[in-house]
Structures are given as C-alpha cells and as structure tokens.
Amino acid sequence: MIDSVLLIAFGGPSAPHEIRPFLEIVARGRRIPPERLEEVAHHYELMPGGCSPINALTRAQATALENRLRSEDAALPVFVGQRNWHPFLHETLAEMAARVHRRTLGIILSPLRTEASWDRYMTDVAAAREKTPGAPEVVFAPAWGDHPLFVEAVADRVAAALQEVPEEDRRWTPMVFTAHSVPVAMAERSPYVSDFEQAAHAVIEALEHPRFTLAYQSRSGSPSEPWLEPDVNDVVRSVAADGEKHAVIVPLGFVCDHVEILYDLDVEARGIAEQHGMALHRARAVNDHPEFIAMLAHLVGDAR
Known about the structure:
Oligomer: single chain
Number of strands: 8
Strand content: 5-15%
Strand order of the largest sheet: 2-1-3-4
Order of helices and strands: EHHHEHEHEHHEHHEHEHHEH
Helix content: 40-55%
Radius of gyration: 19 Å
Structural class: alpha/beta
Distance between the termini: 5 Å
C-alpha cells in the first residue's frame, strides 16, 4: 500500500542567476552546441521575472491533487521531485524519508514515452534512492497519455482556443499537435511516436474536428543527428502557404506552459505565422485542469 505520491518533473530555473547552471545540468552528457544553450538561455531571460514558470505550475498540480484526494476521503501527501533543479529527486526523497514514508507512487509528468521523457526519470529515481538513506520504495504509475480524463482535459483546452477563431472559419481551421522532437534513433526504440499519434487521434475524436496534423518542436541536439520531423515552424509555414487565415496549435506532449511553449510556440511560431498573414491560436497545456487532476487521482486510486 502506498503512503504518499511523488510527482516526477523536469524542473526549471526560478531566478535569472539559475538559468545557466540549470541548462548545464540539462545538457550534461548530451551533444548540444554551446550556441544553442546560449540561445535557450536568452529565451528564459525573456520570460517574466527571467525564470521558468514550470516549478510553480508543477507545485500547483501537486496542491490540486492533494486537495482532490482529500475531497475523495483518500488523503495522501503529494511531493514534487525534479530531475534538473530544486527540489531535486534526492532532496525530495530525503524529506520523505524524514517524514517516515515507506512506499510512494511515482507519477512521471510526461504523456509520451521515450528514453528522454520516461526511462531517464526512472533511472534518476533509482540513483536518487541509492544515495538517500531510508528513501521510500517508488512504484511507478503506468503510462497515461491516452487516459480518457487526460484526453478530456486537452480537448477542453483546444475547444477554448477554437473559440478565438471566427465562427465561420472554426470548423475547418487546421490543428497542429506538437511534441518535443527527439533523435530518430531514440524514437525508434520506444513507443513515443505511436503514443503521440494515439493521443492526438483521441483528442480529435473527442472534438469531432476534421483537420489536424502532427509536428515536433524544440530540437536541441547535434545538427548532424537526424531528429523527428516535421518541425513545427515548417508546418506553420506550409499551413499559411495553403492560404489558411487561422490555425490552432496544441502542445500535446507537455503538461505545463513552460518556456518551450511560451517562447518556441507563442513567440517564434506565432511570429512566423504573422509574417505569413495567419493568426496562430495556442491551446493552453493542461496545467492544473480539473480533469487532468482527476486523472492523477485516478492513478493514485488504482495504486492503493
């Protein structure tokens, strides 16, 4: 029986002076060109307060889940542990050990499974447990990217974005679903692409919308290595070249409105759309949407 919940997240800098140390951690062991890291650092600097909102959004998810469990008479403490910034996984596990938690449900906050978005989290949890005396056992929730409640939350976010489109254009406005690009070789060893396709189709079925396409964003690796395509910016150019006046972009592969959405989509992709005379409407990530929180609670219920 579990006695707690651990939300396992990516993490992000909470102040301008943390940006480059954070990016050094993210890039450790990866062939990311220094100029790309400096470019990304600038993206963070452009955010309000010069930091990422991901930590606050993840804490909001944890608080909402705790409240939801309490309302269902299934109260459990919910902790946040992060791979790349405070609270690091080992810091959170040490806190849990101090509070005498023995068995926790780990929920990886990524709807799509590949080495970068799933396996490394599990490996890092194991490493954090090894160096934390008394760390609780961590049992992992199963994949949830096609869970009906997650699909419902995404569909609701998309429906809200569609309301920004003039009613006469809404039915045939193209949707562009996005996920983080990863190396092709990595994707071929995982269900990442099929997870993405399955989740997008489920959202489309829920909305009964006839037009959509898939794209990848935020590539960060070596230019010589093939990564998943098409790139979202190329898709935006193509859709605009077809004469579309509106498009809705849906960051399906992300659960928080963090910098890779707020800059890569809201600034870069939207700027390209505007250059080509097209309005780009962006669906919010699920963040603490009630149905997403209900889904997390459902995962907890299944593990009790």
